[in-house]
Amino acid sequence: MENHKNNPLADRMRPETLEEFLGQEEIIGEKKLLREAIKTDKIPSMIFWGPPGTGKTTLATIIAKQTKSEFIRISAVSSGMKDLREIIERAKIDQRLGKKTILFIDEIHRWNKTQQDGLLPHIESGLITLIGATTENPSFEVRGALLSRSRVFIFKQLDRKNIEDIIKRAIKDKKKGLGLLKVKINKKGIDLLSNVSNGDARIALNILEYAASVSNNIDVEVVKEATQKASLMYDRNGEEHYNIISALHKSMRGSDANASLYWLARMIEGGEDPLFIARRLVRFASEDIGLANSRALEQAVAAYHACHFIGYPECNVILSQAVVYMAKCKKSNELYTAYLNVVDDVKKYGNLPVPLHLRNAVSKLMDEVGYGKGYKYSPEHNYKEKQEYMPEKLKNKKYLKD
Prior knowledge:
This protein has helices at 9-12, 25-28, 33-39, 56-66, 81-96, 113-117, 120-124, 138-141, 144-147, 160-172, 187-197, 201-214, 220-231, 239-253, 257-269, 274-289, 295-310, 316-328, 334-349, 364-369, and strands spanning 46-49, 70-75, 101-106, 128-134, 151-154, 184-185, 217-218. By secondary structure, the chain is α/β, with parallel strands linked by helices. The strands form two sheets. It has a five-stranded parallel β-sheet, sandwiched between helices. Helix 5 links the parallel strand 2 (70-75) and strand 3.
């Protein structure tokens, strides 16, 4: 694996062996099944799920170096069925030559149903071994049939010690890191850099690289400046991430379309996952608009699907449309507060019994006990029947306005 001097520091410092790999001990630690599978070149099809910068691509690259399989890497963002067909034909040739093929698909959640289904017969036949990487919950974004044929490994954010070790390694490394530049960083600088990176090795190294371009003596102030420049003061996994989504939500709630667009742009330009934003819009549509405009939910769901189909950069205007629509809508939190009040009563009263007249008598004994007795079938009463549907303790209770 080449580490060209002009490549970003994060690429140059990518570990090339299991011994260099930091973090994810529960997955790749000594005597763990995956580590043994790599050593014996018996790799199962796998899905790597976890936050950015936690080693998913790095581990896949190590597998490529330490196995005898042909290793093909693609991104789901820029590839499709045509690429898959070409890979399958190449794998067939390699199979005839006695070689196995490992296919690594980065951001596999970006592939649609048809594309994911296209993998199935070739995984089942053993023609290819799949390694898919995703930041999204595979239960929702990866086809069930594909999941059932793969092992899912959950990657966790790197801890502070891991990040500190990565920073120190980059400072000292004279071949791939900053060693020849004689860069120094004090303990407070390391502590701050470890904190703002929030378990993401790539963020830590990106900030460190920028800081080293500013000064050979890196302290807290240099790290702060580098953080601002490197990430537009937006950290996808840290406090600012939640601050800005909160600002977007409150701006839409306050019907300020201009401020809503601004906070949206901060998130988009900071590299936020468009599906995360779209999911928050879906929630907002019911929580803050709700019964005042039921079309808002349709708009939000449509925006989510559109973002799923086309991704960045094209979906930025789709998110903008949805955000402005939400901001300009009439608002009502009646549904949201009504549900909270219901939950309070559920917790207060516990499992209140269903009134007998609302129960179905599915046996003779139930009929004799009185299940269903006195129930008024609404269509027969032109939907104007007077009938109690609440448990006895909540009789005539109102959560919503009439």
